[in-house]
Design a protein that fits this description.
The chain is an alpha/beta fold. The protein has 12 helices and 14 strands. The chain folds into 2 domains: 220 residues, Rossmann fold, CATH 3.40.50; 67 residues, Alpha-Beta Plaits (2-Layer Sandwich), CATH 3.30.70. A hairpin with a 2-residue loop joins strand 12 and strand 13. Bound molecules: adenosine-5'-triphosphate. Belongs to the ABC transporter superfamily.
């Protein structure tokens, strides 16, 4: 089997009676952008800390860049760049001065440190602001500076913990684009932890859905969707100009149609195959004025909800209240931002 750049096997961490991470198994290949997706308290940060050798596992192993993280924390630090959710800088120093300082700490020789720092600032789009004090930077600019800081040691893997927290939508878009570029142009493997479903979906090749210390599922969004929605993978939403008498039975007679849901002028039809042409023909033949036809694709939010429907109810019966709270706050946060 091809060696993965991150290999987690049977990894657990308990704090007293709390299982923060519970028997986690995960492999991430070189060059992937992997999204660790889960709500607050799911165990993402604890997993990251174990991968960096910053906290000792209760059981299991975390290997990164061929190193056992808990046995080799210092070599791991050299190969892995870690950006926490709140990066700290010297506010009175300029971005360039901050980076030069970090470069020296990382052992970059004096005659190279200025060029190296400038190169990194240029690569993260901070060229014009490099002489400004870090204290005057916006949250988005600070995250870029954080990325430059991490890149300075030319890491093989970058771990980003909630990197887009508190950045405005345009800043998020630019930051995600930057991550994608780094991955494509420099082949850096990226592990990104987040609870923002749509952001993760935009940038990650594979995701892991992490809840209550356990990995509920992993795979590409397409694979997860195909697996979860295999009963009726194709959904067509038809909108009519005005409510018509639509016969659900007639629609159910059309080849491949498995489910019909009529709500006033909006009709949702599910099927085994792509049923769009037959559906459109049906409504036109009935003389209905069709104002919209849309094929629904399943994104991470549907996948997440389906996991809740299928797993959470059974797994967390003992903790029903907190699950409800968590579910509400998770989707609440996702929708608000
Ligand atoms: N040092 C600690 N001592 C006791 N409990 C801890 C400690 N660190 C984390 N926990 C608990 O472990 C669980 C997982 O926390 P963790 O920070 O890993 O979650 P997370 O998914 O990163 O969430 P967040 O996005 O809020 O950081 C939480 O219930 C948290 O309270």
């Amino acid at each position: 089997m091809e060696q993965a750049i991150i290999e987690i096997h049977g990894l657990s961490k308990t704090y007293g009676s709390l299982k923060a991470v519970d028997n986690l198994n995960l492999r991430i290949q070189q060059g992937e952008i992997f999204g660790l997706l889960g709500p607050n308290g799911a165990g993402k940060s604890t997993t990251i800390l174990m991968l960096l050798g910053l906290t000792e596992p209760t059981a299991g192993t975390a290997r990164i860049c061929g190193l056992d993280a808990s046995r080799n924390p210092i070599p791991v630090k050299r190969k892995v760049g870690y950006m926490p959710d709140n990066v700290g800088f010297y506010n009175e120093l300029s971005a360039l001065e901050n980076l030069k300082y970090i470069g020296r700490l990382n052992g970059i020789p004096e005659h190279e440190v200025e060029t190296a720092a400038k190169d990194m600032l240029i690569s993260v789009g901070l060229e014009a602001a490099m002489h400004k004090k870090a204290g005057t930077y916006s949250r988005g600019m600070k995250q870029r500076l954080g990325l430059a800081d991490v890149l300075l040691k030319r890491p093989e893997v970058i771990i980003l913990d909630e990197p887009t927290l508190g950045i405005d939508p345009a800043g998020v878009r630019d930051f995600l684009e930057l991550i994608r570029q780094l991955n494509q142009e420099q082949g850096i493997t990226i592990l990104l932890s987040s609870h923002h479903l749509h952001q993760v979906q935009q940038v990650c090749s594979r995701v892991g859905i992490f809840v209550g210390g356990q990995l509920l599922a992993e795979g590409s969004v397409e694979t997860l969707a195909a697996d979860l929605f295999k009963a009726d993978p194709h959904v067509v939403q038809v909108t009519l100009q005005k409510a018509a008498t639509v016969s659900e039975n007639e629609l159910l007679q059309l080849p491949g149609v498995t489910k019909v849901n009529v709500a006033d002028t909006a009709i949702e039809i599910s099927g085994h195959a792509d049923i769009t042409p037959d559906i459109v023909r049906y409504f036109v033949h009935k003389g209905c004025d069709v104002t919209g036809v849309q094929k629904r694709t399943y994104g991470l939010d549907e996948i997440y909800q389906r996991y809740f429907e299928n797993n959470i109810k059974e797994n967390e019966v003992h903790n029903e209240k907190s699950t409800g709270l968590f579910q509400r706050s998770f989707f609440g946060r996702f929708k608000k931002r």
